[in-house]
UniProtKB/TrEMBL annotation:
It comes from the Bacteria. The chain crosses the membrane at residues 6-31, 305-326, 332-354. Signal peptide: none annotated. InterPro entries: Nucleotide-diphossugar_trans. It comes from Luteibaculum oceani. This is Glycosyltransferase family 2 protein.
Length: 399
């Protein structure tokens, strides 16, 4: 019995240390949001972007694709810059293809036995000659551009610059409890891993869409990547290796349609957590190199790969309060951990969000937690095959 108690205490201590480290890291990022930030002024570049390729990998989701194309074309038609809208179509209906072409879309038929986002992009890059000085603007199939500041910003980007840019991706809809939770999660991520990180001197996180990059740099980096999930994490890695600046732009938005289906949400999160796990394994040596060489901001950036997924983090932090029964000191430490985590969350969540988030958690919390606890059984599938999020036909009620 005494041996079992020692083992339980040891395991609990290790989990608690991990949770506490994650909670303190998130609290640091939250507090980073309070740091002052110099306002950027969009000034016309001496050599502005020559051409922009809006690039949209599209695997099925035909109805959502058509809707986003129509909305984006209304905005892009006002641009004075040269641009083209390229859809990397994979398993689209023939009727959808015809409709896209009639709208003026450049349709690239993806031919892949095992389709993934990164492989579709690489296939297009291999067969496309990009103009010197052009840029690529990567969007997801359900993303909607926002007109405000877009034109002025694109005119301010120097075509000879090496910077990459990440727009703020925010929810296009909150028409259900699940969509509201997804929107809240995205908002918190923006505050922690982009605004907070950037103000602290840590590289902001890429999202996988809403990113603008010089075409030559994008092509060079993307040619190195062939993964089922987590390609944005690998892009971040190569940006660090090549010392290429990445700038987060909270004043420029891309709207993202949130799913209202809890099973679709689980599939999406399974893909993300699996990708995080695989990337963390592959880049552990880079974490150690950054620490040993005292590249602290790089170390803190790689450390994000080892943060506990949020739902599991909250669940474990609450469950660890029961460690009071094992050891009073462990219990007090568990209380400090939960307090730090809640402070990190509350610091970046507007008060107006609390009622609807609380209601959504009450209604769906137990099922979401169960889905997270059981998602390990699908990790192998997520590693071998890209798990596509079905957005259905939910309306964007944000406009």
């Amino acid at each position: 019995m005494e041996l079992l108690l020692i083992i339980a205490t040891s395991i609990t201590t290790l989990i608690l240390i991990w949770c506490l480290a994650c909670s303190l890291y998130l609290l640091l990022l939250s507090l980073g949001n309070s740091y002052p930030r110099r306002k950027k002024v969009f000034k016309k570049a001496d050599k502005p972007i020559k051409k922009i390729h809006f690039l949209i990998p599209a695997y099925k989701n035909d109805a959502v694709l058509i809707k986003s194309v129509e909305k984006n074309f209304n905005i892009l038609s006002k641009l004075t810059l040269d641009w083209e809208y390229v859809v990397l179509g994979d398993q689209l209906e023939n009727e959808t293809k015809s409709q896209l072409k009639s709208l003026g879309v450049v349709l690239f038929d993806v031919q892949l036995e095992n389709p993934t986002k990164s492989r579709a992009i690489n296939q297009w890059l291999e067969k496309t000659e990009l103009e010197q000085g052009s840029f690529i603007f990567l969007l997801d199939v359900d993303n909607h551009l926002v007109e405000q500041n877009l034109h002025d910003f694109l005119l301010s980007v120097d075509r000879e610059g090496a910077d990459w840019y990440q727009f703020m991706r925010t929810a296009a809809n909150q028409n259900s409890d699940i969509a509201s939770l997804d929107a809240w999660s995205e908002m918190v991520n923006n505050k922690w891993f982009r605004t907070g990180a950037q103000k602290l001197g840590i590289r902001p996180a890429l999202i996988g869409s809403g990113m603008l990059a010089p075409a030559d740099s994008f092509e060079n980096i993307h040619a190195k990547i062939d993964v089922t999930g987590g390609f944005d994490k690998w892009v971040e890695h190569y940006l660090i290796k090549q010392r290429i600046p990445l700038v987060y732009l909270p004043e420029l938005q891309v709207l993202d349609q949130k799913t209202s289906n809890i099973d679709a949400l689980q599939k999406q999160r399974t893909r993300w957590v699996s990708a995080q796990f695989e990337t963390a394994k592959s880049l552990f040596a880079e974490l150690l190199k950054a620490l040993i060489s005292l590249r602290i901001t790089d170390f803190l950036k790689y450390a994000q790969l080892y943060l506990i997924p949020r739902v599991l983090h909250i669940f474990l932090s609450v469950a660890l309060l029961f460690s009071f029964f094992l050891n009073e000191n462990l219990g007090l430490l568990a209380l400090v951990n939960l307090t730090a985590l809640l402070l990190a969350i509350f610091w970046v969540t507007p008060i107006s969000w609390f009622p609807k988030i609380a209601m959504a958690v009450v209604k769906n919390g137990s099922r979401i937690i169960w889905n997270y606890l059981s998602m390990g059984k699908d990790f192998k599938k997520a590693k071998e095959k890209f798990l596509v999020t079905d957005h259905g036909n939910s309306e964007d009620n944000s406009n």
